[in-house]
Amino acid sequence: MDEKEAPVFWLEEHSGKPATPASLKRKVRSRKLEFVGWGSKPLIEFLESIGKDTTKQISQHDVTDIIRKYVNDNNLVHPAKKKRILCDERLYSIFGRKAIGRMKVYDLLETHYAENQDAWSDGFSSMSDEDDVGEEQKSVISERKAYQKKKVIETPKSCFAAIVQDNIKLVYLKKSLVQDLLKDPERFEAKVVGSFVRIKSDPNYYLQQNSHQLVLVKGLKKASGNNDINTDILLQVSNFVKDVNLSMLSDDNFAQEECEDLHQRVKNGLLKRLTIVELEAKARILHEDITKHWLSAEITLLQKLIDRANEKGWRRELFEYMERRELLMTPEEQSQLLLEVPNVIAEEIDIETAPQDFPGDEQENDNSLVSTLKGTSDIPSDTALDGKLSTLMPSTI
C-alpha cells in the first residue's frame, strides 16, 4: 500500500546575490523644493488654501496638527489601515505620494522648512508610488537578497494546543478582570473555570524557581461564614493544595519563564493537555472581556505617558502617544479589535527518524555484545596486545 505523502510547503532559500524589487528599480532623482519665505512653495500654498496665515512661521508641530485636523475633516484615513493617510491633491503636492503613515507626517515636514535646508542641501529622494509600503519596509526591501524556493516537508500539527505565551494570553485573567467579572454572578463560573490565573509560588516547594506560577482554574468554592460575594469565593486551581482567594491573584502579566514552567508541568503529566477545540471555545467566551479590559488599561497607560512626555518636553514621543491613544479611542478601532477571531497555535509533532544501518554496524554490535558479556575478567592475548602496541609505537625501520 502506498504511503500517504507528507504535506509540503515552499521555503525561500538565500542565494547570496542582491536583488532589487521592480518597484525600486527606477533611478533615484533629486527633488529641489522652491521656497517662499520660511517654507516650501507646496507647503505655503496648502496652508493658504485652507485659510491659514503664512506671514509668520508656523512651527513644524503646529503644521502637523493642522494636517491631522485636515485629514479627519476630509475623511482621508485609510478605511482598512487606520495608521495610513490617503493623500488628496493638496497633500500629494507636499509629500509626493498617494499614501503616507500617520506617524511620519512630522518627519516628512522637516524638508519643507528653509531653516533645515543645510542638512538637506543635496535634495531628497522621491519615494516610490507603492501605496502600502512604508519607509522602513522599503529600506529593508532594498537590502534584501535574492531567494530561491525550496520544497520542504511541513511539520505535522497536533490536535493539542501549544503551551506558549500567545495561547495562554487568550485565556489569562488578571485580578482586576476577575473582580469585574464578579459583577455578573450568573456567568462568572462559566467564564472563570477553565481559564488561567497567576498566583505566588509555594515558598516551601524548593523545586519552584519562579516567584509566581500559572495555574488552571478547575472549580469554585464558597467560603463558610462570609456573605460578601467579593470575598467568599475561592478558586480551586491545579497543582496547588489550598484553595485560592481572589486577593491572592496577580494583576500583572506573566513571564516567559512561568509559561515554560507550565509547559513542563503539562509535559510531566501534572496537568491535562488542552486541545485546540477546547482552548478556542474558551478564548471566544473571554475575548470580549479581555479585549475591553486591555483597552481600558492601555488608554490609561498612554495618558500617563502623554503627561510624562509633556512634562519632559519630549515632543516626538508626545505626538506618538497621542496618536496611539486617539486611535484606540475610535469606535472603528475598538470594533475591529473586538471582532478579531482568537487564533490558537497548534503543538508541533516531533518526528523521530529511525537510525540507518551502515555496513559493519552489525559486526561491531556483535563484538560489543560479546565484550559486554565477557566483562572485565577477560585478559587480552599476547598476540592482540602486541598488535595494539605495534600500532601505538612508531616504526624504527
UniProtKB/TrEMBL annotation:
SUPFAM superfamilies, alphabetized: Plus3-like (SSF159042), SWIB/MDM2 domain (SSF47592)
Region (Disordered): 353-387
Coiled coil: none
Domain called DM2: residue spans: 32-115
Compositionally biased spans, kind Polar residues: 366-380
Annotated signal peptide: none
GO terms, molecular function: DNA binding
Protein name, entry field: Binding protein, putative isoform 3
